[in-house]
Amino acid sequence: MSPALHLVLHLAFTVIGTLLVLATLPLCIELLVLSTAAALPARKRRDRQPSVFRLAVVVPAHNEEKLISNCVQSLHADLETPTEIFVVAHNCTDRTAELATSAGARVLPLDGPGGKGLALDHGIRHALEIGADAVLVIDADSVVSPNLLRSVARAIRGGADAVQTRYQVANADASPRTRLAELALLGMNVLRPRGRSRLGLSCGIFGNGFALSARTLQRVPYTANSLVEDLEYHLRLIQAGIRVEFLDRATVFGEMPEQSAASATQRARWEGGRAFMRRQWRKPLLHAVIRGDKRMLEPLLDLLSLPLATQTALLVLGTLIPLAWLRAYSAFGLLLIALYVVVAASLSSDPLRTLRALAAAPAYLVWKLLMIPRTRLASRRGAAWIRTQRNAESSTKAGAP
């Protein structure tokens, strides 16, 4: 090889390597800091007990007749916490409203265009009108642990402005896809918020199992209506100086899609929505950090972080490029991912079973690559909010004559 060609190749590899590092560094920092911080002891808080406390639950629902009864019944399991349950029947054409009423919920009909954010705003407004001291949001395809309402009420009474419970998979054993989803949610919705909580940071909002005090909703009304309205609203909370606390001992269990088509709809909405938020918020967050607002640094890193599958693929690519510094960085990044996955699995009831889900990871990486065009469409301004098809609906169609 001639010296000139060697120089050109070296320069090309250096440029590629630099871009790879810039793309993957935010998540590397996140995984290192949060995986380590998750091992720190939990912070304690003082508990204040007012004489009266009213908790309202808002359940956004669109054609959820297969699941709404179980959801409402699980919320009624905690008889110690006085609670009013509002089911927002958004453009429902099935028996959702009827079954929710039978299960003991108050139904709020809502018709018209819009996504989950619109339904939440409708329900939250009604909850505040009846004098609720806090509003808890639970998805219609979910059930909650028996202690969840008590834990939320205790935290808000103790002075928390906003809280997020654990959000885990209800149907983890249904398929290799849902077992891998269980591991992913243990990382995203348990390990990372636990690490943030240990560092005194806002733990985040995951769209399910979060609660907001009335004073918080008065300061920051829930008007977010993007594809990832939870992320959008959390960024607004941070801007307002409000911290979301993590309730590590209470859990909401949500159903994950078992079929590829339904999973693709959900994944495109999540990742496409995050990509849109990244374009909208990265400059304001960066400017805040430059001005010295340290609260914005971790949210900025989180927003710039790639999906874990994409991060893994890029780091594997980095180990193949003939640059010693890039190979060392990529190997260290892959080691961080391995540490993160092991720690996340350790937070499950059966760590070894959870780790076995990694057998499906190679096929998942290929599927993610095929999902790129769909994700890009979902990242555009004005992209429509598309509901994920429920597993019970898929089963019904599969069994239809």
Kindly describe this structure.
By secondary structure, this protein is α/β, with parallel strands linked by helices. It has a domain at 55-270: Spore Coat Polysaccharide Biosynthesis Protein SpsA, Chain A, CATH 3.90.550. It is 55% helix and 12% strand. It has 16 helices and 8 strands. The protein has an 8-stranded mixed beta sheet, sandwiched between helices. Helix 2 links the parallel strand 1 (55-61) and strand 2 (83-90). Helix 1 crosses helix 10 (297-304) and helix 1 runs antiparallel to helix 11 (308-320). The longest helix is centred in the N-terminal third of the chain and has 35 residues, at 3-37. It is globular, with a radius of gyration of 22 Å. Residues 397-401 have low confidence and may be disordered.
Topology:
Layout: H1 3-37, E1 55-61, H2 68-75, E2 83-90, H3 96-103, E3 106-110, H4 116-129, E4 134-137, E5 142-144, H5 148-157, E6 162-169, H6 176-198, E7 210-213, H7 214-219, H8 229-239, E8 244-254, H9 260-290, H10 297-304, H11 308-320, H12 324-346, H13 351-355, H14 361-370, H15 372-378, H16 391-398
Total beta strands: 8
* Lateral arrangement of strands in the main beta sheet: 3-2-1-4-7-6-8-5
Computed Rg: 22 Å
Query: Which blocks of ≥5 consecutive residues have pLDDT under 50?
Result: 397-401
Return the CATH architecture of the domain at 55-270.
Alpha-Beta Complex
User: Order of helices and strands, N to C?
Assistant: HEHEHEHEEHEHEHHEHHHHHHHH
Give the overall form: globular
